[in-house]
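Batch job 17 of 40 flagged for manual review because the log was empty.
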Amino acid sequence: MDGLLFDTERIYFRVGDVVLQRRGRRFCHDLQARMMGRVGLSAIGEMIAFHELDDEPAKLLEESNTVYSELLLEHLRPMPGLDSWMERLIRSGVPFGLATSSQRRFVEMILPTTTWHDQLAFILTGDDVVNGKPHPEMYLKAADALAISPEQMLVLEDSGNGCKAAVAAGATTVAIPNEHTRGQAFDGVHLIAESLADQRLWNLLGGKSEASGGVEDRSDENSTGTSA
């Protein structure tokens, strides 16, 4: 969700800077890269270690959550190509779900703003896993939710940690870097796409794109799913 479907990484950066400025520190892209894909206390642990803070992790996390909640809906915006991609995905008939490191309370704030949230086959959040990305637990659970093997699953990810998790799970992985993640490593991915509107990504669903004169849906005999 973050940085792939919605431009929330920009908000997270602002949140990190707010809480760190209160402590005489500043947020930076190196720290953001370390935190991406990690869940809750694990992400905050990276911040504490990076700046050698003496804060209690749970209290710092709650402070960050409060700031994020105040900024989220006001500054939320979709990533380029999101609407067209979701229309294409729905018309393809491929089942799809959401696998995000975000806390469920924030997912429940964001999804109602979309027209496609009721099409999701499953929703997995950071609250549903013990090990955050780059551990493969999230995507192994996603495959279970789709009742397929990980090798039958297409995963879209924007970060290096997320791609490591998907590749380790055995999924076909597409990296779609954003301005915050372009310099990260995406070893083992099937494709590095320009955006959700990249024709090479659309081709993975089969059929014709709308840009080439209409969508031709194709249902494979083997069940295949996509997760992001």
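Reviewer: the log was empty due to a logging misconfiguration, but the result itself is present. The chain has nine helices and six strands. Unflagging and moving on to job 18.
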